[in-house]
């Protein structure tokens, strides 16, 4: 594969669905999986098959229906979980078992295992998974708070046992971009066998750095980004797919990486995930927020009408929008009002525009947004007064 190709691993249906209150129905999961498949996501983490009968059924049906994407299921580090996962993904043309265990001091205390006991468990479980499929991902959960020597040791064990992807989770969103890049780079330089596997980055957004950390990890050598639509996920969420993909596309000069994503499908899936999860997208959210391609102030609207590049670094069409929006409000200027009037079929001279503009401002002071119908009413009352 091209050395600058970044694999997009979407976990909306697993980590995203773990977000309190984001549960989706079986049909909704199938629909989202189909949209992910069609937009060019390389790997879909479709669920956690041991978690419930419903999760098993969803992973299994998504595995049977997938046309292009590799279908992955999550399993803890025990043979029962891994067997159940293998059963769920077995019908996918391309499949993957993703198995994990918490390796930091805090997480090692949960199952109460010594370092040696955990190392043995990793060897046993990754070997078992590899006997069931030739594509195994292993994650040391809470990797960014795991001791350096121990992290290197367990990754080496997982690679020797047959893992094909090593994922480095920043489970609690603790790391910072410089550390994220450095950690991946040093692991690739240090761990024997690292050049035979793909390193992945899985970032949480507790400090609002998930996107920056994922991109920094790619700069450090990671070639798989784990992410979700709209950044859905545990607590403050995961890296947002739309953000990393559009960042690499827009700033390809300094991030010369490619993905297989058809970015024109971003808006449609963002809206659908928001509807089925019940998680409203904040208006000023990067890429997919309602205001991401909207300009209200007079200076910006005038600049946009002269040349969109004045205030937009991406084309709205590239994320699936029909165009920029210039909502009319109290900050809007004459240029945008004239533009709107023309769109609505009204030809006005300079004097008439001056008069309508005064009445428009008066209305805008009383209303948050002035809609097309308001403008039409203004024009009708203008006609009646003539
Ligand atoms: O955040 C995390 O550590 C996870 C693992 C299961 C990879 O989601
Ligand atoms: Zn996670």
UniProtKB/TrEMBL annotation:
Binding site for Mn(2+): 15, 202, 204, 238
Cofactor: Mn(2+)
Enzyme Commission (EC) number: 2.3.3.13
GO cellular component: cytosol
Subunit-structure text: Homodimer.
Homology family: Belongs to the alpha-IPM synthase/homocitrate synthase family. LeuA type 1 subfamily.
Name of the molecule in the record: 2-isopropylmalate synthase
Species this protein is from: Cognatishimia activa
Name of the gene this protein is made from: leuA_1
Shown residues within the full chain: 1 to 386 of 518
């Amino acid at each position: 594969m091209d050395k600058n190709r970044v694999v997009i691993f979407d976990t909306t249906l697993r980590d995203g669905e773990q977000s309190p209150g984001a549960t989706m129905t079986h049909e909704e999961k199938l629909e989202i999986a189909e949209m992910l498949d069609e937009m060019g996501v390389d790997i879909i983490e479709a669920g956690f098959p041991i978690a419930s009968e419903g999760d098993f059924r969803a992973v299994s049906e998504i595995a049977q229906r997938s046309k292009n994407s590799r279908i992955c299921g999550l399993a803890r580090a025990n043979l029962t979980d891994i067997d159940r996962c293998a059963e769920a993904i077995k019908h996918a043309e391309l499949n993957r078992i993703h198995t994990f265990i918490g390796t930091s001091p805090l997480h090692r205390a949960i199952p109460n295992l010594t370092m040696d006991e955990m190392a043995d468990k990793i060897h046993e479980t990754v070997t078992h998974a590899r006997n069931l499929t030739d594509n195994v991902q292993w994650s040391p959960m809470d990797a960014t708070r795991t001791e350096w020597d121990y992290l290197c040791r367990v990754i080496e064990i997982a690679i020797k046992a047959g893992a094909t992807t090593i994922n480095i989770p920043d489970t609690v969103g603790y790391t910072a971009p410089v550390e994220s890049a450095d950690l991946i780079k040093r692991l690739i330089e240090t761990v024997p066998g690292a050049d035979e596997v793909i390193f992945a980055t899985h970032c949480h957004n507790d400090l609002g750095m998930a996107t920056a950390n994922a991109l920094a990890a790619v700069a450090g050598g990671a070639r798989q980004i784990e992410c979700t639509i709209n950044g859905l996920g545990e607590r403050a969420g995961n890296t947002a797919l739309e953000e990393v993909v559009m960042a690499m596309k827009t700033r390809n000069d300094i991030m010369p990486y490619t993905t297989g994503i058809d970015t024109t499908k971003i808006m449609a899936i963002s809206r659908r995930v928001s509807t089925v999860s019940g998680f409203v997208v904040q208006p000023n959210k990067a890429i997919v927020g309602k205001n991401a391609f909207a300009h209200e102030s007079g200076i910006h609207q005038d600049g946009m009408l002269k040349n969109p590049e004045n205030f937009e670094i991406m084309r709205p069409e590239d994320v699936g929008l029909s165009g920029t929006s210039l909502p009319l409000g109290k900050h809007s200027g004459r240029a945008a009002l004239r533009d709107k009037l023309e769109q609505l079929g009204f030809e006005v001279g300079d004097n008439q525009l001056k008069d309508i503009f005064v009445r428009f401002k008066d209305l805008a002071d009383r209303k948050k947004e002035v809609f097309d119908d308001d403008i039409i009413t203004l024009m009708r009352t203008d006609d009646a007064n003539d």
